[in-house]
Structures are given as C-alpha cells and as structure tokens.
Amino acid sequence: MNRASAALPKPALRGTDPAELAGEIIERLTYRIGKNAAAAKSHDWLAATILVIRDRVIDRWIASTEGTYQAGGKRVYYLSLEFLIGRLMRDAISNLGLMDEMREALSSLGVDIDLIRELEPDAALGNGGLGRLAACFMESLASVDVPAYGYGIRYVNGMFRQEISDGWQVELPETWLAHGNPWEFERREASYEIGFGGVVDLAAADGSGDHARSWKPQDRIIATAFDTPVVGWRGTRVNTLRLWTAQPIDPILLDAFNAGDHIGALKESNKAEALTRVLYPADSHQAGQELRLRQEYFFSSASLQDIVRRHVQYFGDIRTLPDKAAIQLNDTHPAVSVAELMRILIDLHNLDFDEAWDITRATFGYTNHTLLPEALESWPIHLFEQLLPRHMQLVYAINAKLLIEARRQHGFDDAAISAISLIDEGGERRVRMGNLAFAGSHSVNGVSALHTELMKETVFAGFHRLYPDRINNKTNGITPRRWLMQCNPELTTLIREAIGDAFLDDTEKLRDLGRFADDAAFREKFAAVKLAKKVALSNLLRERMGLKIDPAALFDTQIKRIHEYKRQLLNIIEAVALYDQIRSHPERDWVPRVKLFGGKAAPSYHNAKLIIKLANDVARVINHDPAVQGLLKVAFVPNYNVSLAEMMMPAADLSEQISTAGMEASGTGNMKFALNGALTIGTLDGANVEMRDHVGAENIMIFGLTADQVGKARAEGHDPRAIIEGSRELSQALHAIGGGVFSPDDRDRYKNLVAGLYDHDWFMVAADFDSYAAKQREIDTLWGDRAAWNAMAIRNVAGMGWFSSDRTIRQYASEIWGVL
C-alpha cells in the first residue's frame, strides 16, 4: 500500500443494491436528461447509467485527491501526447465491482447493458500502442495505489476516423465529442497562458543570475483543463487524466468583424482551436511542422505550469520539487518540457542555471519507445527559434554544459561530441528532442529487454558512455482488467472456475492455469469460449462489411499501426503465395484460414496507404475466386480502435507479430492476443523475446533473422534480388503483385513497392519470407491437432501474468519515481 493511502479519508459509499441503482437511473433520466422511461432512447439510458456510476466514482475521486494532499506524499505526472482510453463506462463499472448489480438494475428497467454500452464513443485521444500503453498505465497507477495525474491534449477530432473507399484509406474527422462527454469536468481555475514567438530581453537586475531572461511572446493563448477520473481496480484509488484545450485570449476582433472582415475577426480563435483539433497533423510541410511543435509545447507548458503551481501551493519551496513530483516523459513528444521547466525555474523562480539543471534532471524521467530516426523527433533550428526563442537559448546553454563535460571530463572526440549534441549539424541544423530528453532526465528507460540493449548500442551509445547508469529497462505491460476480464468475461469465468480468484488481484497467479493444458475437459471448455468469440466477431464483420467468414476457420490476425517495419506487406505477400499454392494443388488438405488486417496509416505515409490498398485488392480477388472458397479469405477491417480490438483479440487464433527484428521497441498487442489464448507467430523482436521466455519456446512460433543478423546484413550488404529469385513462391507472388494481377485497373500500381524489395529490402521482407512461409505451414499442421493447439494456447494464457501493467508500474514506482 502506498504511503499516502493510510491518510485517505473513507468516502461515504453509495448503495449497490440493484433496486437502488435502478431508482437512481430513473432519477437521472428524469432530472438530468429530461425524459421519462417511456420516451427514453438507448442513448438516454446510456447517459443516465453513466451519471449514476459517475457519482460513485466521484466519491472515491475526491477522497483520493484529498488523502494525497493530506499525506503530503510524492505524486507522479505522466506526460503523453496520446491516451487511447477507449470506452469508459464498462471499465468504471467493472473496476468498482458493480457489473452484476448494474446489469440487474438495467434489466429490471427493460434495458440491456450490452446494447447501450456499444453506443458510447471511443475517445479519439490516441492512435496506436503508445496511446494505449499510456491508458493502461493510468489505470494501473490507480490500481496499485500511486497518486498520479496524466497530462495530454483534449483532441476534438483525434487522429481520424478511417473509412475504406475502393480499397483506399479515407480520413474523416472523429466526432467523439459531438454530443458531449459525461466523464469530463472543466476546471476553469486551472488555466494558464501559453506564449509563442516574440522577443527575449535581459531580466531585471533582481539577483536572479546571469542566465535569467524576460520572454515577451508575440502570440498568447489560454490552456484550460478538463479532468477525467481514472478508476483503479476495486475502486481503491481514482486518479486524474487532465487534458488541455486551447482558447484565444481575444476570441473575436470586434473592430474587424464590424468592418466586414468576418474571417479575419476570428483569426485568433481559429489559431487556438487548431492546436487541439487533430492528433499528429501531417508534418510533411512547414505549416504542419509548426502546428505539431506548437501542440507539443502547448501541452508541455500547461502541464509544467500546473505541476509547479500545485507544488508551490502545497509545499512552498520550489527546490523540493524532485521530492514531491516525478514527471515521466512518454517518448519525445513532451521533451520540450526539459527546456520549459528550466525557463520556469530560472526566469520565474530566480534560480541560477546549475541549480535549476540539478532540479530538472532529478525531476524528469524519459521513456524511449523507438529506435526509428523519424520518431526521435527533431526540429529545424529556424522553426524552433521562431516559435520558442527563450527555449532555444536554454537548449544552447544546456548543450554547452553537456558538451564541455563530455570533452573535458570524459575525453570525447569530435565524432562522439557530434553524436550526443542537442544540435544536429548534418545538413539543416536541427534540435534533437531525444537527446534533450535524455540529457534532462535522471532515468532513461527502454520498454523491452532487447530494445533497452539496442538503445545502449545505437541511438544513445554516446550518452550511455557518458552516463552508464542512466539507461534501464521497464518492459511494457497491459491492464488485465480491460484486456481479459472485461473484453473476455467468458474466459475469465473459466479461469476462475479452474484456479480460483487470486489472479484477479495478482495476474502472476495465472501460471497455475498451466497444469490444465493437459486436461482434456478443460481444453474443450477453452475451445468453446474461443469459438463463441469467433462467432461474435464473424457476426460483427458480416454486419459491418457484408463479409461472411467461417468461425471454424483459423483466424490469423494482424492489427496494428500500418508501417513498413511492422511488415503487413510480408503477411500479404504470403497470402498471395498461399493463394497460388491452393489453386495449384487443390488435392492437398488445406487448413481453412481467414487473414484479418486492421490499422491506420499516417495520412502522409504513401507506402503505408498503398499497403492498405494492396490488402484490399488482394482480398477482392481471393474472396471472389471459387477455387479457394472456404479455404482462404482476406479482409481489412476499417477504423481499428480500442473497441474493435476488444472484439478481434479474443477471437484470434494466431497473432501476427512479425516486425523486422530490432525495430519494434516492445509491442503490447502481442501480450493482449496471448492473454486471450492466441498463439504468436513472430520474430525475436521487442517483447516477443521475453514472451518466449515466459510461455516457453515450444509454445510460440519464432521465425526469421535476429536483430544482430539484420544489423549485420545491413552493414555488409545483402542481395535481395538473389534471395527473391532463389525463392519460387516469393518470386511468383511478387511477379503477380508487381505485374498487376491484383490491380487490373492500374497494372503499375504496385510496381515501385515491389521494386523496393528487389533494390534494397531495408525491412528484410524478402530475407525473412521463406522462414515465415515455412512457419505458417507448420502452423497448418499444428492446427490439425486441435488438442495440441489448445494446450499451447492455454500455456500462453498461463504465461502472460508477468506482462501486467501493474508489474510495470510497480517497477517504475520503486526504481525510478521513488513512490513505493
């Protein structure tokens, strides 16, 4: 138990009797929604139900907040540009332990809780694994009793809603806030001014030190907080997700409006609203880059101002900030926070540079999620200086201190100095945000054992030499509440019947399930749960896409952000090769297989969008060919999000985790699939390595080059053309794709995509194809022995307890934040 928990005041808990709950629902429906039961529609019942459960959340929320203040303990602040929280009603009801009671209460009113919960929109606050991890962490922070705030942006439209038109991705606004959000609370008192541009003058002679400056921004906007409660398991603690929205200081220029310039009069409003409109605006042009940098500084500055204001209010002395606040930077997006805290400490609190730097480094921790250069953000010097002139000065000052230390105390030569510098001098000079985050943090962690070691050897090798004790590993995890108990209650019930309830509070108790892998009766029950989930998904896909699939087929699923390193292309090419084999050898006993894809491509990422089109083109041909009917189907499921994942993961038989080795930091989809009884086909990349250790090498399907082998092939050069020409299945599949078999309307559509594999094959698609295809045929054979398959699937569930985000958060809390 956290030190602060002893001081938590016990809230006067509201009743849990179904009849009392039903009465409250009717009361909210009448006086908050303005309808009686006879006139209420499904969305009215949803709103009334949320209000009833929300009241019970608020009781615990207030008690949690007051108890932390009274205890005077340390608080964690998690800064992330994404929080992919999904629907919240079921999460809150389940974590409060009221699912059965609320179901009975609604049933007594003639309402099906499973129907109304589907009406709750997914919050459009994230895109993929980074945002979902942040959401899992927020839930686990509350579950393990760590006082915490999450900080992010309240996006109006988020990433985008994905539709598929003629096989192409179409991006549409995600209107999740169209009818309001009953979970959030506006905090007008938590409003802060955020500045951009302008000039920097010498500070007044007040003894604040040589580095103090007075920044006079040209553009100013107001950041206002909206708070959402995050309920921990069993309702022990409720923490806060604080999201910022932007408002202009002058919403309308009346003189301009009255003069007839109606558009110009709203210029400031439009500029402010743009900051919180879209997640990851396309940055292939300068306007997009500027907007994205504005977003990152906007939420970082508002969050830092809020943290410092709270600390001074409750503890007085700014110098004790590291003792009371642990700020974690989730990837490089909030890295500008390092310079912003320095500005606050030096310019506003009159500390000298060295003292401010010591406080800053003691306060921040940085989580790195990628080794991809494009994801380790950097900004052109001219853009950074134009928008944040004071911060540019501080970056130069930090860099000077860093490089002098490296040169004089550690003997770094010019090449080593260049590698760690905060300024990239190669070509256009740029500010390296990953280096800034590393330099300004006392702890830098990777998110899987392999990723952490690669950080030391590649992107942060120079920093590791300079600070050999700073890099550490915190392998990612997932919350078992959402990703087992809530999305798969049938499997949860089966596990409870087998091993009892202890795993509900300690998922590592799942290992006790392993002994049931050889129990034929249990395997049959396990298979029945899986089949029921596959039937539910089949019905959903028929309703949404008009796609008919056989629930008895092997469901082979790859759902994740579309990126070349994640190698959806490898999967599609293998589907084409399999298609050729089925047609060429109809006499063989082929395993019926459904290949399911899902995920979004960044709007400006041409090849990723082309891969989506290819998946749909291949699906159109295969699904309409009578020669393979019942043996192979392919589908790209549009608008992949948390709610869809909650349907697809429990239904999957095979989980595709096939990224190029050394490029996936961790992955968390791999954990969610395995926890729900899917077998993994994957490379030794990210957390797959540790999953193999926990579930047993015999229970996971590993193929392909290792990270070391990939690095060696790239360094020494490999000949993909020779590899392709030496593989009959691969060359035939690529010839069909590149030659227009699947794109008769545009036979050159995939010509360049295929040519890239022949020319350089950076992501080792050709290099790994034969190994991948061979492993898939092993999987066909295994599928024929359903008892063995189910035994392996059960062992996967049993081995996934360690991958709980509760474990991850406890490691952060004790080893980085010092709060447990």
UniProtKB/TrEMBL annotation:
One of its GO terms (biological process) is glycogen catabolic process. It holds the Pfam family Phosphorylase. Its EC number is 2.4.1.1. The keyword Cytoplasm applies. It comes from the Bacteria. Keywords: Allosteric enzyme, Carbohydrate metabolism, Cytoplasm, Glycosyltransferase, Pyridoxal phosphate, Transferase. It catalyses: [(1->4)-alpha-D-glucosyl](n) + phosphate = [(1->4)-alpha-D-glucosyl](n-1) + alpha-D-glucose 1-phosphate. GO terms for cellular component: cytoplasm. One of its GO terms (molecular function) is pyridoxal phosphate binding. Its cofactor is pyridoxal 5'-phosphate. It is found in: Cytoplasm. The keyword Glycosyltransferase applies. Its main location: cytoplasm. The modification N6-(pyridoxal phosphate)lysine is found at K672. Allosteric enzyme that catalyzes the rate-limiting step in glycogen catabolism, the phosphorolytic cleavage of glycogen to produce glucose-1-phosphate, and plays a central role in maintaining cellular and organismal glucose homeostasis. Phosphorylase is an important allosteric enzyme in carbohydrate metabolism. Enzymes from different sources differ in their regulatory mechanisms and in their natural substrates. However, all known phosphorylases share catalytic and structural properties. Belongs to the glycogen phosphorylase family. This is Alpha-1,4 glucan phosphorylase. The lineage of its organism: Bacteria, Pseudomonadati, Pseudomonadota, Alphaproteobacteria, Sphingomonadales.
